[in-house]
Write a structure and sequence with these properties.
The longest helix is centred in the C-terminal third of the chain and has 25 residues. The C terminus is likely disordered. Helices cover 58% and strands 9% of the residues. A three-stranded antiparallel β-sheet has the order 1-3-2. It is built from seven helices and three strands, in the order H-H-E-H-H-E-E-H-H-H.
């Protein structure tokens, strides 16, 4: 695993201006460079050449990608760089989060099954039946069999 201090993705993300540019591109979708310059100027004094340099660093780190449309350059998030960052950060994720989600699902299933069993024990019709044979859930034969048992 690469060290984030030397990884271009993390070097690029280390600068607050570049993080802000990435956020704007993410929230806006494909966006022209001029719009990014204006968005950054509203919060701080920054020149167009400085924004271009920040975008170059983001592009080289594969965090943004650029598409030429005539004289305009349209920037969008590059999934490759985001996935590289996510891959490294995943080692810090809670290893129990997914198994605990699965456990929660199984607990809900168990409760649902207990309710069905409880309803069936009290003479309620079970929620099964066969469309192929045309039998209705909890038909006469099924009710008689439960009473006899």
């Amino acid at each position: 695993m690469t060290r984030p201090a030397s990884d271009p993705v993390f070097v690029a993300l280390g600068d607050p201006v570049r993080r802000r540019l990435l956020e704007i591109v993410h929230h806006t979708g494909e966006v022209p460079a001029g719009t990014l310059v204006e968005a950054l100027r509203s919060g701080r004094e920054i020149s167009q050449p400085a924004v271009s340099q920040h975008l170059r660093v983001l592009r080289e780190a594969r965090l943004v990608q650029v598409r030429a449309e005539g004289a305009r350059r349209l920037y969008s998030v590059d999934p490759a760089g985001i996935e590289a960052a996510r891959g490294w950060l995943s080692m810090f994720a809670d290893p129990f989060s997914q198994p605990l989600d699965a456990l929660a699902t199984e607990l809900v299933r168990g409760r649902r099954e207990r309710r069905r069993t409880t309803n069936d024990d009290h003479g309620n019709a079970p929620a099964t039946g066969s469309l192929a044979t045309g039998s209705a859930p909890g038909g006469a034969a099924g009710r008689g069999a439960r009473r006899a048992g």
